[in-house]
Amino acid sequence: MTITITAFERSPDGGKGLARDTRVRWALEEVGQPYEVRLVSFRAMKEPAHLALHPFGQIPTYQEGALAIFETGAIVFHIAEHYPGLLPQDADARARAITWMFAALNTVEPPILELGNARLLERDKPWYAERLPLVEDRVRGRLAPLSTRLGDADWLDGPFSAGDLMMVSVLLRLRASGLLDEYPNLAAYVARGEARPAYNRAFDAQLAVNKAPAG
Ligand SMILES: N[C@@H](CCC(=O)N[C@@H](CS)C(=O)NCC(=O)O)C(=O)O
User: Fold this and answer.
1) Helices (H) and strands (E) in the chain, counts
2) Distances (CA, A) of 143 to 8, 19, 26
3) How far is the CA of 20 from the centre of ligand 1 (A)?
4) SS3 for the chain, per residue?
5) What is the pLDDT of residue 187?
6) Smallest Cα–Cα separation from 172: which of 100, 109, 123, 121?
7) Does the C-beta of 59 come closer than 6 Å to ligand 1?
8) Is 22 in the pocket of ligand 1 (CB under 6 A)?
9) For the chain, which ranges sit under pLDDT 70?
């Protein structure tokens, strides 16, 4: 069955790979599943046809036969459950890998998004300079324990899993802030993720969309 995902017609990051279709592309590349991409404009994302797929009018979505789902956590979990390569066979190890997916999305990503929003949307506010260090410290509050837990391991719990895919994807959003470099083992962890051939294929595919002449 053909897998179709949606992605921005033009990503606001210009192809840096931070739009969330990259995580889904990466998961599909890791498990070796071909997929098609339907590009959507910001306007189309808010129209009924897309809202039927994604109630919040966002990307990515995922369709496979009669199935239509949204939310990158649910999509990557679905891929990992249905195709081998992203979750261990052992039930306990599998539960721990899933735990890391949730930790990435639910515990680590929120303060990172808050920082991104502050840097992008609040720069002109009179309280920006005063607030920024507070927001950065909330990110450090997640990075420090993550760094301690990772230690000198390559991945969070044994072999690379969907948990690492999600955690690396979330941490990549920090690059512009410089905060990641305060934790050399996390910076190396992210670099290991980025060095995976599947990540590179996913990154190149989204870049090709964003570098294509506007049409
Ligand atoms: N929690 C959602 C977040 C989806 C999301 O924020 N998508 C962004 C692109 S990365 C989007 O569509 N933004 C446009 C908008 O919200 O109007 C997920 O993980 O899929």
Assistant:
1) 10, 4
2) 29, 21, 23
3) 7
4) CCEEEEEECCCCCCCCCCCCHHHHHHHHHHCCCCCEEEEECHHHHCCHHHHCCCCCCCCCEEEECCEEEECHHHHHHHHHHHCCCCCCCCHHHHHHHHHHHHHHHHHHHHHHHHHHHHHHHCCCCCCHHHHHHHHHHHHHHHHHHHHHHHCCCCCCCCCCCHHHHHHHHHHHCCHHHCHHHHCHHHHHHHHHHHHCHHHHHHHHHHHHHHHCCCC
5) 98
6) 109
7) yes
8) no
9) 215
> Which of 23, 59, 71 maximizes ligand 1 atoms within 8 Å of its Cβ, making it the mutation to test the pocket?
59
Q: Which amino acid is at 30?
A: E
For the segment 38-52, what is each residue's pLDDT rounded down to a tens digit? 999 999 999 999 999
* The two three-digit tokens of residue 197, written as one number: 């051939």
